[in-house]
Amino acid sequence: MNIVVLVKQVPDTESPRKLKSEGSTLDRGAADGVINELCEYAIEEALLIKEAQGGEVTVVTMGPDKATDSIRKSLAMGADKAVHLVDDALVGSDALQTSYAIQQVLGRTGFDLVVLGSESTDARTGVLAAMLAERLGVPQLSLANKVEINGSAITIQRQTDSGYDKVEASLPAVVSVVEKINEPRYPSFKGIMAAKKKPVESLSIADAGIDAGQVGLANASTEVVDFNEAPPRAQGQIVTDEGDGGSKIAEYLASKKFV
Amino acid sequence: MAEILVLVDHVDGEVKKVTLELLTLANRLGEAAAVYVGSGYESVKDKLAEYGAGKVYVAADEELTSYVVAPTAALLAQLVGEKSPAAVLVAATGEGKEVAGRLAVKLNSGVLTDVVDVSADLVGEHSIFGGALVAHAKVKTGTPIIAVRPNSIAPEAAPATPAEEQVSVTLSDTDKAAKIVESVVEEKGERPDLTEAAIVVSGGRGVGSGDNFKIIEGLADSLGAAVGASRAATDAGWYPHQFQVGQTGKTVSPQLYIAVGISGAIQHRAGMQTSKTIVAINKDAEAPIFELVDYGVVGDLFQITPQLTEEITKRK
C-alpha cells in the first residue's frame, strides 16, 4: 500500500511565537521548530497500517529548509522516504493554497491512503483534510480515533462531541487522526542512523507542477489586517486556604452572580 | 441588505446554542438566513424564529446527513450560487470547520477559522497562539466563509417570522464516498456540551485518578457546568479524550472556567485562555494557572472542592 503521511513543522509552543510585521506571516525564525504533535500520531498510524498491510510510507512536508528536522524525525520513526516541497514562492500561503500545493505533490507521489493530523498547533485551522478530500475527490475520513482496513475497505471511528460515528469507505482515502488514536513511538538509535540514508526528494513548485499564481502571500484568499499582543489579564486575587477556601470561592462566585 | 447564511448546528431535535450566536451575529452583518440540513426542522423552527432567522432554507432529505460533511458543503455551495449571500457562517467545531474547508474549495473562497468576532466590513477577529495575540483578518477572494468559535457572541432574542424555502441538492458519488453507518453515543449524562457550556469545571494532574474525577463532576453538577480535563488527565486515562481542553483538544470560552489541580501549561492555556472569568484551585502557589486567574486558592483540592460544592448547593 502506498501510504503518504503529511508532516508539518511548527514553532515549539514552549518558545515565544511571533508574527512578522511584514505580511503578518509566522516568524519561523523566532521559535524553535518541532514536528506538529498531531503529525506524530499520523506517522504512527501510517506505520501501524504499513506493518499490518505491507507497503511503503512516504512523508510529504511543505515548509522551509529547516523543516528537514521534522522530516528526519519522521524517517527515524520508520517512514521509508520523504518529499520536501520547499520554495520561497510558497511563503504566506493560506489553507486553501496549501491544499492545492499538496494536491499537486500527491499527484506525483500517488497514494492509496493519505494520513494527517486533524489540526496543527500553530494555525489550528483544522480544514486541510476536508480540503484535500474535496480536491482529490476521495472519501474524507476525518477526526479518526480508530482505523481499520480490510482489502480496499476502510472503516474509521470519527470522534464526535457525544461519542463517535462509524464511517465506511473504499480506498483511496484521506484520513485525519486525533490524539487518542495511538501512542507514537520514539525513534530508536537504529532508526535515527537508518534515517540518514533514506531518500529525501526536494521539490520546487515548478518540479511539482504548482502554478506560482496560485500560491504565496500575494495570491492568498485571506489577509491578516493587523495583529497585537492580547492585553494581559488583570492580576486576580489569590488566597491561601485556611480551611475555608471552598467557602471563599463560593462567596466570590456569588459576588459575580454565578451562584 | 444581503443575506448571511448560517449553517444550523443541531443534534437530537435541538438547536445548539452556537447557532443562536451565529444568527445574532448574522443580523449585525446583514439578514440572517438559516440553513437547516437533515430531518427534525419542525422541532427547532420556533427557536430559529425567536433568534432572528428571517429566512430558513430547509434541506430535509435525510440522505444529506448520512455521509461525512460533503453533502452539506454541496448544498451550501449551491445556495451560495443561487442566493449570493454576503458571507457564510458556520460554528468553529471540528465538523463545522470541515464544512467550511470543503465549501472554500468548491467556491474558491477564502475561509477564516475560529474567529471570536466579525465586524460590519467582515473582518474577523482571532485569538491566536494560545491567546497571546489578537489578529484581524479578512477574506480577499470569493464569498467569505467564516467559522465562529462557540460562546464568543452573546445570543440575543430578536423574534422574526421566517420565510421558509424547501431546498435540495443532487449528490455526486464523491459526496457519498464516506458513509456514516452508525452513530454511537457514549455516556455524557445531562451535562451541557463542553464547547457550548456557560461554565466549565476542569480537572488535571492534581486530581490523581479517574475515580477522583467524581469530585470534579460533583462541582460541575452543582453549577450546571460541563466537565473538562487537562491533557495530563486524559493521557492518564482518568477522563475520556473528547473532554480534553487545550491545544490538542477543545477550545472553550465560557463565562466561568474553574481549573482544579491544573498547573496551567501552555498546552492547557491555549484551550481556555479566552474564558471570561477564571478560578483555580491548586496546591502549588507557583503554578502558572495563577497568572490567569480572577480568583485563586492555594491549597488541597480534596478539601476545598467538596467544600465549594457544598456551599454552592446550600446557596441554591
Description:
The complex is a heterodimer of chains A (259) and B (316). By secondary structure, chain A is an alpha/beta fold. Chain A has one domain: Rossmann fold. Chain A has six helices and 13 strands. In chain A, the strands form two sheets. Chain A has a nine-stranded mixed β-sheet with strand order 9-8-7-10-6-1-4-5-11, with helices on both faces. The longest helix of chain A has 17 residues, at 37-53. Chain A starts with a strand and ends with a helix. In chain B, strand 2 (10-11) and strand 3 (14-15) form a beta hairpin. The mean pLDDT of chain B is 95. Chain B has helices spanning 17-29, 45-50, 70-83, 94-107, 213-223, 231-235, 266-272, 301-315; strands at 3-7, 10-11, 14-15, 31-37, 55-59, 87-91, 111-118, 124-128, 133-139, 145-148, 163-166, 179-185, 199-203, 226-229, 256-260, 277-282, 295-298. Chain B folds into two domains: 3-166, 3-Layer(aba) Sandwich (Rossmann fold); 199-315, Rossmann fold (3-Layer(aba) Sandwich). In chain B, strands 9-8-7-10-6-1-4-5-11 form a nine-stranded mixed β-sheet. The termini of chain B are far apart. Chain B is built from eight helices and 17 strands. The radius of gyration of chain B is 21 Å and the shape is elongated. Chain B is α/β, with parallel strands linked by helices and 316 residues long. The chains are: A alpha/beta (259), B alpha/beta (316). The interface between A and B is large, with 85 and 99 residues.
